# Entry
Amino acid sequence: MKKNLVFLGPPGSGKGTQAVRLAEKLTVAHVSTGDVLRNAVKEGTPLGKEAETYMKKGELVPDHLLVGLIETMITDGKLKDGFILDGFPRTVPQAESLKEMFDRNQVPLQAAVLFQVSDVEVVQRLSGRWFCPQCQATYNYPARVPEKEGVCDRDGAALQRRPDDEEAVVRNRLEVYRKQTRPIVDFYRRESVLREINAEGSPDEVFEVLVREVG
Ligand code: AMP
# Structure
C-alpha cells in the first residue's frame, strides 16, 4: 500500500535525514519545505526573496506561501504515489489547511510521526551540522562524520553550514517550534494518526524504530 506520512519534530530531530531514507525504502516522494525554500532563496525567485528575511532570523515563512505550494503539488499529482511531508505543516492553520486539501482530494493520511529529542541534544546536534551544497547530503559531528574532513563522501564538494544553525538562531527556532509547531501534535492526536518515536539514538537506531512503526 502506498504511504502518506507527515514528519513532525523540533529542528535537529533528524526528521530530514530519516525522511530521505524512508522515502527511498518506500519509493514515495520526499517533500522538504525547508529545501524547497532554500532553493528558492538560492535562485532568487519571488518566493525566495519573500522567504529569506524570515528564514535568516529562524522565523516561519507566512502560511499562505507554503499552503499554496503544497496545494499545487497535490493538484499536479506530484504526491499521488505516496509521500513524506518533512517540515510541513509547521503551524495549526497549515495543519488545518492540509486536512482540507486532503479531504477535498481524497488523500488519506496514515500517520503523523513525531520525532522526540531534548533541547540540549538539539543545540549540540545543530552546532555540529554540515551539509553538501551539491547533493544535499547531511553530516554531523560526532555522529556522522565524512571520510575526509570538510568534504562530501558522495561528490567531493566542500561542506557548508546552514546560516540558521548559528546558536542564537537555533534558540529562536526552538522557541518558534514550541509556540507554533508543537500545538500541531494535539491536532494529530485528535485525528488518531499520531505516532511518537524517541529520536535520540543513532541514525540507524532511529531508522529501525521508524520502519517498525510506519514502514
Ligand atoms: P527546515 O529545513 O525544515 O528546518 O526549515 C528551515 C526554515 O524554512 C524554517 O526555519 C522556516 O523559516 C522555513 N520553513 C520551512 N518549512 C516551513 C513551513 N511549513 N512554514 C513556514 N516556514 C517554513
Summary: The chain has a mean pLDDT of 93. The pocket of adenosine monophosphate is lined by residues 11, 33-34, 37, 54-55, 58-61, 66, 87-88, 90, 94, 164, 173 (CB under 6 Å).
